[in-house]
Amino acid sequence: DVKVTQSSRYLVKRTGEKVFLECVQDMDHENMFWYRQDPGLGLRLIYFSYDVKMKEKGDIPEGYSVSREKKERFSLILESASTNQTSMYLCASSFVSVADTQYFGPGTRLTVL
Amino acid sequence: AQTVTQSQPEMSVQEAETVTLSCTYDTSENNYYLFWYKQPPSRQMILVIRQEAYKQQNATENRFSVNFQKAAKSFSLKISDSQLGDTAMYFCAFMKRTGNQFYFGTGTSLTVIP
Question: At a CB cut-off of 8 Å and minimum separation 6, what does A21 contact?
């Protein structure tokens, strides 16, 4: 079974703090993704990576950065957390082949006070 | 740009009954893939079913089936013999054949009533 894990299920941070969200997958997937999920807005892509050290901006990259130093790990960084970044963050991974299924992690619910 | 629309924010169905969730999308692509994902309460998102646009036959997975109307750009999900475990948020998603990016709808929250 594919396993995608995220470092925390719940996280509370203060405005201005630097926040790291970690995602690890164990299936040797090339692609990894970070989404945020908000009620009424569905899932919106923040960043994705198709290889180590490679990254592409998604639809809402502002205020976020990412790091992929190893194939199995994809980190989302909030350089200076703000209250409007309070959300559920979902990580996903997939093989690079056409239309392969994305496998999701359990999500991290981040609250920024 | 691709957009995916789910016009039913919430739905409910009696246990053992059938329910249909609607999804429409907008694209100028001819080759693409469509997906339905399920997110149970406090649990991980999982794939329910997927459809390849070049296939005319509607995809089926046990109690889940789709009605894919390419000309109308419609991709509805039918759940037969609904079970309590079907209670979840359901997301419709689109992916271009040549891309890696998924485009998700806003979701439909389905409640199965005992």
Answer: A6, A7, A8, A11, A34, A75, A76, A77, A78, A89, A91, A108, A110
Sign of the CA dihedral running B59, B64, B69, B75: negative
Place of tokens 């339905």: B36
The torsion angles phi and psi of B84, rounded to 5 degrees, stand at: -55, -35
Per-residue pLDDT reduced to its tens digit, B30-61: 889 999 999 999 888 999 999 999 888 999 99
Identify which has the larger pLDDT, B80 or A39: B80
The predicted-structure confidence for A59-98, as pLDDT tens digits, reads as follows 899 999 999 999 999 999 999 999 999 999 999 998 876 5
Inter-residue contact B105 to B15 (CB < 8 Å): no
Q: Which residues pair with B49 in a beta bridge?
A: B36
Angle of CA points A106, A108, B1, to nearest 5°:
85
Contact A7, A109 (CB under 8 A): no
A88/B contact by beta carbon, under 8 A: no
Reported as half-sphere exposure (CB side, CA atoms, 13 A), residue B96 has a value of: 11
The beta-carbon neighbor of A99 closest among B33, B45, B106 is B33
CB contact under 8 A, A48 and B101: yes
